[in-house]
Specification:
- This protein has 6 helices and 5 strands.
- With 154 residues, the chain is of the alpha+beta class.
- It has a 5-stranded antiparallel β-sheet with strand order 1-2-3-4-5.
């Protein structure tokens, strides 16, 4: 797809709830897909508009149905989260994440080989994850508490 026909090149008209392509054809609203935290809206051009278009080879070479675009809109929870993450307090807290959260995740993946679960079903996966996390936490407790006592006693 040529850069001049990427989705950013299409003009959105909020009043008509439609997109206009660089060649002036209209892509009308067709469907809505509601996901967790996001809603996706699909806009489709008329087949005849795209078939007769001189730019078809650049705009939509792989389809015979006409050009389509998807516009994603964040839900209120996601928008609130993004706004919160723009604050300096959240950014400074997030910078600490690497030292706090990434090492245990790496350890669990590498040391215990938990890249895929060996069971099926959400409850069984939760139980397996619980046991792996408990094992990791007990090993950290031993490393931080008991070894000091063993070294002091020797």
């Amino acid at each position: 797809m040529a850069p001049e026909f990427r989705p950013e090149a299409f003009a959105f008209d909020a009043a008509a709830n439609a997109y206009t392509c660089p060649e002036g054809k209209t892509l009308r609203y067709k469907t809505r897909q509601v996901l967790v935290g996001q809603t996706k809206y699909t806009y489709v051009a008329e087949v005849g508009d795209c078939v007769a278009c001189p730019q078809k080879a650049c705009c939509c070479p792989t389809t015979t149905k006409g050009r389509s675009l998807v516009r994603a809109e964040d839900g209120p929870e996601v928008a609130a989260f993004r706004a919160k993450m723009e604050t300096e307090e959240a950014k400074s807290t997030y910078r600490k994440r690497g030292a706090v959260a990434e090492f245990p995740n790496l350890c669990i993946k590498e040391r215990y080989g938990l890249r895929r679960f060996s069971v099926r079903g959400l409850e069984k996966v939760r139980v397996e994850a619980f046991w792996v996390c408990l094992t990791y936490n007990i090993q950290q407790w031993i490393r931080l508490c008991w070894r000091k006592q063993l070294v002091a006693a020797s």
